[in-house]
Specification:
By secondary structure, the chain is α/β, with parallel strands linked by helices. 41% of the residues lie in helices and 16% in strands. The protein has a five-stranded parallel beta sheet with strand order 3-2-1-4-5, sandwiched between helices. Helix 4 (103-112) runs parallel beside helix 6. The protein starts with 5 loop residues before the first strand and ends in a 12-residue tail after the last helix.
Length: 184
């Protein structure tokens, strides 16, 4: 088994990610390892159709660049807070990155770089409906990662307000009444 020198900790800044961060910090202290926290948001071009309200002041700015700046401006203080908490926990080697793109692909690309021996992430994040319909980021990372992945289970009652709400199949698929009587 390879010695754990650097841990990749993907974070969406949810309570679930904070719990995974505590596990990562404990492991980092045990193995004298560093932690890299990465927050990946969907690229601004993916969000552009939803931000018609943006006003562009300069001719050389695009909606994508303005949205990217907006996301970085709001994500950077949250990333710095996560890094501070890790240092307060006793981890001395911490770094943070804000990246745009497809979260699971970015995580896999980082893991494949050879810089990490372990990924630690929460079993549930804050992406809610998108994960349920498109497929869990965690599931994709676990299936494709070239390094071990520690998935920290988050009790259903502890999942943050942005995570997938508890509902039965009828609610999930919009069935009314008995699901066996549906027409689709």
């Amino acid at each position: 088994m390879k010695r754990v020198r650097r841990i990749l900790l993907p974070s969406d800044f949810s309570d679930s990610a904070a719990t995974a961060g505590e596990f990562a910090a404990d492991l980092a202290l045990r193995y004298d390892a560093g932690i890299d926290v990465v927050h990946v948001f969907k690229g601004a071009p993916d969000l552009e159709p939803f931000v018609d309200w943006l006003e562009i002041d300069e001719a050389n700015q695009s909606k994508a660049s303005v949205m990217g700046d907006f996301l970085r401006h709001h994500a950077k203080p949250r990333l710095e807070e996560v890094l501070r908490k890790l240092v307060d926990f006793g981890v001395t080697q911490v770094r943070g990155r804000l990246l745009a793109g497809n979260p699971w692909r970015i995580i896999i690309d980082l893991a494949a770089s050879g810089d990490y021996q372990l990924i630690v992430m929460a079993s549930h994040g804050g992406s809610g409906l998108a994960d349920a319909l498109i497929g869990s980021c965690v599931d994709r990372v676990v299936r494709r990662s070239p390094v071990p992945v520690l998935v920290v289970p988050i009790p259903r009652e502890a999942v943050g307000r942005h995570a997938w709400p508890e509902m039965d199949d009828a609610e999930l698929f919009g069935w009314v009444g008995d699901p066996s009587n549906r027409t689709s």
